[in-house]
Write a structure and sequence with these properties.
single chain; alpha/beta; TIM Barrel; eight-stranded parallel β-sheet; three-stranded mixed β-sheet; 16 helices; 13 strands; 40% helix; binds 6-O-phosphono-beta-D-glucopyranose
Length: 476
């Protein structure tokens, strides 16, 4: 009888994940244009869980552009742009076999609609990928991670315009041709399902410029999915060895009720979470979406050419995992017990068994290799007197998760990689601060970029190194 493996397979991708806008800094160097991330504000006066950057109106954008630069930590990140060699070396010091980061679209096409690519930006990523490869890490590249050129929002109202399909595919063609010999693994868009909370960063829509924001978001998402499909078609032509993946933020729910109505609601809710992946994996628009549009009075423009473009499908699936949700009897949405019990000041907890649940769910649905593109939890922390951050809580957290990934492999799930989020401290995506730290490496900056910028391995760095070097066998 065939047996499933009960350990990590050879060639398992042990990684770490970052995004350009959260670590590069150098927002006005190397010919880079302004991106949406450059106007993500750190709202010190709000409680941690309220420091979210949500929808954006033209008025708000105008106000933000006039504000003091100190309020925008993503502009400086951790200055990876000037430290990439030492950072990559230190990250590779953990034995990582892969590394996920994004290319900043605005470094390659500063305004998004430029005809010519910015050579200095292209050269920067040549060096970054060379350095990763030299240090034994296979690059996994997110093509768009909440950092589209700002001009595409102000001049076109973001992804609502179909012109973005051409701009994005031009960008893709450029980077596919340029990095064909260096990058094999591509994630087309970060977290395609977050449009309820991330509509500006991910879609670039200015809310006051549309009549029906809900409909505009779904049209924009449709355009993104068409662009992704078209890009896959172009990429396969350039290099048949490319592996394409789609990604969502795991926000699925299960029912915490004995009522069938709630169970049905959960199915419907999860369908919307899976929508982008269903398109990317199956190459067609799922029928439940037509019902959803009808029920919500939305008219989405879908052409015959769109249907041809989305017929280009992905090779693997991926997701970020920070939570598992439940729907209660009274129809309200909450977090699973494990997430609630481990919630931080920012309201984020974790659910390691929930990760195994999610991996099984993905594999059952898609039968494709799946990778954990992000996982972890942000903590507020400082070095002890010996200059080191002692973080047994992080070790415990990752131990619990890695055990559950191994269990999922034993369940028969084809898990190909595991990428802790922010293995080096970087600026938080949602709350734009440094003090929400995920890293195995401490970076000496505060929320206003005060500090030496010095990088120091935390206790967990040496633990993760052992895990990776033993291919997941030594979790002690
Ligand atoms: C994911 C994003 O949603 O969560 C990352 O893809 C982000 O960009 C990560 O950093 C953690 O979220 P945060 O807000 O704590 O940085």
């Amino acid at each position: 009888m065939k047996k499933n493996p009960d350990s990590f397979p050879d060639g398992f991708l042990w990684g770490g994940a970052t995004a350009a806008n959260q670590w590069e800094g150098a927002w006005q160097e190397g010919g880079k244009g302004m991106s949406v991330a450059d106007i993500n504000e750190f709202k010190a006066d709000l409680a941690p869980e309220e420091r979210i950057n949500g929808e954006m109106s033209s008025k708000n954008l105008e106000l933000l552009l006039a504000k003091d630069g100190n309020r925008f930590p993503k502009r400086r990140g951790i200055d990876f742009y000037h430290h990439f060699r030492e950072d990559i070396k230190m990250l590779a010091g953990m034995g990582l076999t892969s590394f996920r980061t994004s290319i900043s679209w605005a470094r390659i096409f500063p305004n998004g609609d430029d005809v010519e690519a910015n050579e200095e930006g292209l050269r920067f990523y040549d060096e970054v990928f060379d350095e990763m490869i030299k240090n034994g890490m296979e690059p996994l590249v997110t093509i768009s991670h909440y950092e589209m050129p700002l001009n595409l929002c102000t001049s076109y109202n973001g992804w609502l315009s179909r012109e973005l399909i051409d701009f994005y595919t031009r960008y893709c063609k450029t980077i596919f041709e340029r990095y064909s010999g260096k990058v094999r693994y591509w994630i087309l868009m970060n977290q395609v399902n977050c449009i309820d909370v991330e509509s500006f960063n991910t879609l670039g829509i200015l809310s006051d410029r549309v009549e029906n924001l809900e409909e505009a978001k779904y049209q924009a998402l449709h355009n993104q999915l068409v662009a992704s499909g078209r890009a896959i078609g172009i990429g396969r032509h350039i290099n048949p060895d490319f592996k394409f993946g789609c990604m969502l933020s795991y926000r699925n729910a299960f029912s915490a009720s004995d009522r069938s109505e709630i169970a049905l609601e959960v199915v419907k809710y999860n369908q919307i979470q899976f929508y982008g992946l269903d398109v990317a994996v199956r190459g067609e628009i799922p029928s439940y979406m037509y019902r959803y549009y009808e029920d919500h009075g939305m008219e989405i423009a879908i052409s015959d050419q769109d249907l041809k473009d989305i017929a280009n499908t992905v090779d693997f699936t991926s997701f970020s995992h920070y939570r598992n949700r439940v729907v209660y009897d009274d129809e309200s949405l909450g977090e699973s017990r494990a997430v609630r019990e481990t919630a931080s000041a920012w309201g984020w907890g974790y659910d390691a068994v929930g990760l195994r649940y999610a991996l099984n769910e993905f594999y059952e649905r898609y039968h494709l290799p799946v990778l954990v593109a992000e996982n972890g939890k942000g903590f507020k922390e400082e070095p002890s007197e010996d200059g080191i951050v002692h973080d047994p809580y992080r070790i415990e957290l990752f131990r619990e998760h890695i055990v559950q990934v191994r269990e999922a492999i034993h369940d028969g799930v084809d898990v190909i990689g595991y990428y802790p989020w922010g293995p080096i401290d970087l600026v938080s995506c949602s709350s734009c601060e440094m003090e929400k730290r995920y890293g195995f490496i401490y970076v000496d900056y505060d929320n206003y970029h005060n500090g030496t910028g010095k990088r120091t391995p935390k206790e967990s760095y040496y633990w993760y190194k052992k895990v990776v070097e033993s291919n997941g066998a030594d979790l002690e």
